[in-house]
Task: inverse folding
């Protein structure tokens, strides 16, 4: 984990996760839990924080480049209750980019991935 | 009843028309892109036009599980291409794709899963019933990770042998999925 990374101290903020259409179950009309599984040495799970924007603006931003994607979201106080931390990690393309990681900056375990899967709620379904 | 030879060693019995059985499985899969269970579109190919009409007429009569198998085989071949603009995606290795294909084609597999890629270069199978009992198998290059969730709780375990995975899937399917 980079030492320059800043831990978000905002107590309540929506975090949005994009969902590729191939990770959506048509049969059960829900995302696959696979959307939260990260690589072993990955720093965390990429999300978009709302940054004070409305849900509509965040959705528009995410779908601009990937119009067929689905989107789900979770509020940050739930992250904290799961022993997870949100790191701000803005990029040139996305100033609202953040990472969700374990408190020891050890990425997302399978157990936490499952917890996230159960707590994220879908706000936009994919377009097939 | 005619037969068609699928990739690998399995010979899958089906009422495939005689004309189609002379075309290779790959040619037919290349021709047909499954979008839903029986809805598909066809890329024009004069060479195969002759057998296409027979396939079209016959395919809607196939066993649902056979359609699911063909859909799954097509999906896993297309995952890498589908995600080529997604920076988070880890390309699926030929080993993962082959292990997945073998599992899908295993004659012992009673029910085809829903198949999804993960962001860590693996593929996972998902089974669920109306009561939200859930069974998942994630395919790694040298082992399988399983996850089972029901009213009694959550269980995670690792298996190394494809036969063990088939047994676990079938155990879940026999208890939980009506068509078995």
Result:
């Amino acid at each position: 984990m980079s030492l320059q990374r800043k831990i978000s101290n905002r107590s309540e903020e929506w975090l949005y996760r994009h969902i590729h259409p191939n990770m959506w179950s048509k049969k059960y009309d829900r995302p696959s839990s696979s959307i939260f599984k990260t690589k072993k040495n990955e720093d965390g799970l990429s999300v978009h924080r709302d940054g004070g924007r409305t849900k509509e603006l965040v959705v528009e931003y995410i779908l601009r480049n990937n119009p067929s994607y689905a989107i789900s979201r979770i509020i940050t106080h739930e992250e904290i209750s799961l022993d997870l931390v949100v790191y701000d990690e803005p990029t040139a393309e996305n100033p609202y980019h953040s990472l969700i990681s374990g408190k020891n900056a050890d990425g997302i375990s399978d157990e936490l991935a499952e917890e996230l899967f159960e707590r994220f709620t879908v706000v936009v379904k994919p377009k097939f | 009843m005619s037969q068609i030879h699928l990739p690998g060693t399995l010979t899958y019995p089906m009422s495939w028309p005689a004309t189609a059985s002379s075309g290779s499985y790959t040619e037919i899969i290349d021709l047909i892109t499954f979008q839903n269970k029986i809805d598909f579109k066809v890329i024009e190919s004069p060479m195969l036009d002759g057998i296409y009409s027979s396939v079209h007429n016959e395919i809607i009569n196939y066993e649902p599980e056979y359609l699911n198998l063909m859909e799954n085989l097509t999906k896993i071949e297309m995952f890498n291409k589908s995600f080529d603009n997604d920076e988070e995606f880890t390309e699926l290795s030929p080993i993962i794709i082959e292990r997945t294909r073998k599992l899908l084609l295993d004659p012992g597999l009673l029910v085809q899963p829903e198949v999804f890629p993960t962001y860590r270069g693996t593929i996972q199978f998902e089974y669920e019933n109306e009561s939200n009992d859930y069974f998942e198998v994630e395919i790694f290059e040298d082992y399988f990770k399983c996850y089972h969730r029901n009213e009694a709780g959550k269980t995670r375990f690792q298996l190394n042998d494809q036969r063990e995975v088939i047994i676990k899937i079938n155990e879940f399917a026999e208890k939980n999925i009506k068509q078995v």
Summary: Strands of chain A lie at 6-7, 14-19, 24-25, 30-31, 45-49, 70-75, 84-88, 97-102, 121-124. Residues 55-65 of chain A form the longest helix (11 residues). Chain A has a mean pLDDT of 86.
